[in-house]
Amino acid sequence: MSAFLTVNSLSAVLHGFDQRVLRSVSFSIDTGEVLGLVGESGAGKSMIGKAILGILPSAISIIEGEILLNGEDLQKMRPADRRRLVGATAALIPQDPLTALNPSRRIEPQITNRLVDILGWSKSDARVRAMELLNEVHIDSPERVMGSYPHELSGGMRQRVLIASAFAANPKLVIADEPTTALDVTVQKQILRLIRELQARHATAMVFVTHDLGVVSKVCQRLSVLYGGKIIENSRVPDFFKGPRHAYSRALLAATPKYTDPDASLLPVDDAVIEAVAAEVLAADKEWRHGA
Amino acid sequence: MLDGRGSINRRLGARLWLSGIWLGIMAALALFAPMVSPHDPLAQDLFAGRLPPFWMSGSDPAYVLGTDSLGRDVLSRLFHGAQIAFSVALVAGLATALVGSLLGLLAGYMRGWVDIVISRLVDIWMAFPPVLFAILLIAVLGTGLTSIIIAIIVIDWTRFCRVVRAEAMNQSAMDYVASAVVAGRPRRDILWREILPNVLPTIVALLTLEMGIAVIVEAILSFVNLSISTDAPTWGGMIAEGRTSIHQAWWVLAFPLGVLFLTVLSFSQFGEGLKDRFDPVLR
Amino acid sequence: MAHETVAEQLDTERDVLFSASGLEVAFPDMAAKPVFGRAPMVRILNGIDLEITRGSVLGIVGGSGSGKSTLGRALLRLVEPTAGTILFDGRDITDLNEDALRPIRRRMQMIFQDPMSSLNPRRRVGAIIADPMQMHGFDHISTRVDEALDHVGLPRSFRSRYPHELSGGQRQRVGIARAIALKPEFILADEIVSGLDVSSQAQVLNVLAELVEELGLTLAFISHDLSVIRRLCDTVMVLQRGDVVEYGDAEGVFAAPKAAYTRELLDAIPLPDPQQSGW
Question: Which of A:63-122 have CB within 8 Å of C?
Answer without folding.
Answer: none
